[in-house]
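If it is no trouble, might I ask you for a protein's amino acid sequence along with its backbone structure tokens?
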Amino acid sequence: MKQQGKEEKQANRRRTLDRLCSGSGLLLSIVCCIALIHVELRVQENHRLISHSVTFCDNMETEILRKVRQNYKRWQVKTDAPPHGIKGWFSSFEIVVNCLSLGYDSGSSCSLYKRVHI
């Protein structure tokens, strides 16, 4: 009788331990899935921010090039310079633009260094 009681207690302990292990495993799986979803959402948000920055810089670069060409053409008209400039001096030149001076937020490290051919 004592032997049967001990065996029953051990069986109950094993079942309780099995349930506890199963519950812990399930809880760990749920936490891992939530963490994975959270990380994926952060990756998507960072990708969106990077994409926005690149688009902004591309648009700004296009606008700068448009204005440079426009100003260069005005200079040619005012000075009656030949289309290729004096000895080709103005046919290509370097522009260095810092995005901060054009109102881009200071959290970005956006700067353009382009060789522009007019």
Notes: The two ends are 102 Å apart (CA to CA).
